[in-house]
Specification:
The chain has a seven-stranded mixed sheet, sandwiched between helices. It is built from eleven helices and 23 strands. It is α+β, with helices and mostly antiparallel strands and about 425 residues long. The protein has two domains: about 120 residues, Jelly Rolls (Sandwich), CATH 2.60.120; about 210 residues, Vaccinia Virus protein VP39 (Rossmann fold), CATH 3.40.50.
Length: about 425
């Protein structure tokens, strides 16, 4: 959190930060409230001087780490002008935990000099000497978009990338590519819509189901693989079957999966979509449209239907999912389905209900889409309720809000 009573919020390069005022004292930033396991750590606070350099001995800030509930001090350190000149940008505070603790990280500004303070300190596990720590801080710090060799994508999307970085992702540059590491799942950031669904999947935790049993996940509407990777990173998830009909989007997903060898072996991607029957269809996609908005029902290309014509394959949902479900059941796996396929969800549910497969699935996470049919989420929920599911419909009442969402869990009998 930022204390705007002693400064103003600024965002150079997309960074969430506060510029403190001379003469204003108080906690400029505080927060965190995350639990940290036992171990040794370095908290790297992002601090920079702004247009004013008093004597080097002047104390300009106090770094503080406290237990979040009790307020017990864990570590403190005073920061001087000389300290900032010696270690520009990141000031370090080391601490050690003997047991898991929920911590709060604070920076108290003395008002002796204007400071630019980043809202989120980096918390680095200490596993080596000072050089190793510096390497980790450099690796975790946001890459400089002003470097001469900075990738064009980083330069053009610095603000959005920095926002994602401040939300907990790690943004780095590797071999000329921008890589975003989200909870130990890496993706390439090469096109603007690579980042579109990051907040939904990794920050809002839209698909963060918890289940004690070993699970098989069916991901209908893989897109570039964000949710697929999110599922595969879960320890209890043993298999992920993912379906994406658009070749360009599918290829981006496959590239992202290859970045994650630790969980790639769990994932089985298929370059076709699911629907109510087997068919090959030609759809028109508006040029430049976000990949996540591409529909097997066709997006139209404007008033005259102009755009890119693509030939895609659709397979009957029940015929494809039945053997997956049967194999999972023989292996002792429960089945969870995530469905987000731009309007095809209605034909998918009709196929699954007709085949008697709904009750073979333990839970559904469904984003449904207005505009493709006259149907609503109630047409999807009705067969689930008949099959003994408990549903949580979080669709906004305001139709102008766009798509809707619901969760459904099969009740024990």
């Amino acid at each position: 959190m930022l204390n705007l009573e002693i400064g103003e919020q600024i965002g150079p390069g997309g960074k969430l930060a506060i510029l403190t005022k001379v003469g204003a004292q108080g906690h400029a930033v505080w927060g965190g409230y995350d639990q940290h396991p036992p171990g040794k750590y370095c908290a790297a606070f992002e601090i920079d001087l702004h247009d004013h350099v008093p004597p080097e001995s002047t104390i300009v800030a106090h770094l503080e780490i406290l237990a979040a509930i009790s307020g017990e001090p864990i570590a403190t350190e005073s920061i001087t002008i000389g300290h900032l000149l010696k270690r520009p940008l990141f000031s370090r505070l080391f601490f050690e935990l003997a047991e898991p603790r929920v911590l709060m990280f604070r920076l108290y500004a003395t008002g002796a000099a204007p400071l630019i303070v980043g809202a989120f300190p980096l918390i680095i596990p200490v596993s080596g000497d000072e050089r190793a720590i510096e390497t980790q801080i450099t690796a975790r710090a946001f890459p400089d978009p002003n470097r001469q060799d900075a990738p064009r994508f980083l330069v053009q999307n610095a603000v959005l990338l920095r926002q994602i970085h401040d939300l907990g992702a790690n943004v780095s540059v590797e071999k000329g590519d921008v890589i975003v590491n989200l909870n130990n799942s890496k993706i390439f950031a090469r096109e603007s819509d690579d980042l579109t669904f990051v907040p939904e999947v990794f920050n809002s935790n839209t698909y963060n189901f918890k289940f004690a049993k070993p699970t098989c996940v069916i991901d209908v509407g893989m897109n570039i693989g964000l949710a697929t990777l999110f599922f595969a990173a879960k320890e209890n998830v043993r298999e992920v079957y993912s379906f994406e009909p658009f070749k360009g989007t599918f290829d981006r997903a496959v590239a992202n999966i290859a970045l994650n060898p630790a969980c790639a072996e769990k994932i089985r991607p298929y370059n076709y979509g699911l629907g109510g029957r087997d068919e090959e269809v030609t759809v028109t996609i508006p040029s430049g449209q976000l990949s996540g908005a591409n529909s097997a029902r066709g997006g139209g290309g404007g008033a005259a239907g102009s755009g890119d014509s693509l030939r895609i394959a659709i397979r009957d949902a029940a015929s494809v999912m039945r053997p997956i479900i049967e194999r999972a059941q023989k292996s002792g796996l429960s089945v969870v389905a995530k469905i987000d396929c731009e309007g095809s969800e209605f034909s998918i549910f009709e196929s699954l209900e007709a085949a008697g497969l709904l009750s073979a699935i333990s839970a559904f996470m469904v984003e449904w889409h207005r505009g493709y049919t006259e149907k609503t989420q109630h047409d999807l929920l009705a067969p689930l309720l008949r099959s003994g599911f408990l549903a949580f419909d979080v669709t906004p009442n305001n139709r102008s809000a766009g798509n809707g969402f619901f969760y459904a869990v099969r009740c024990a009998t």
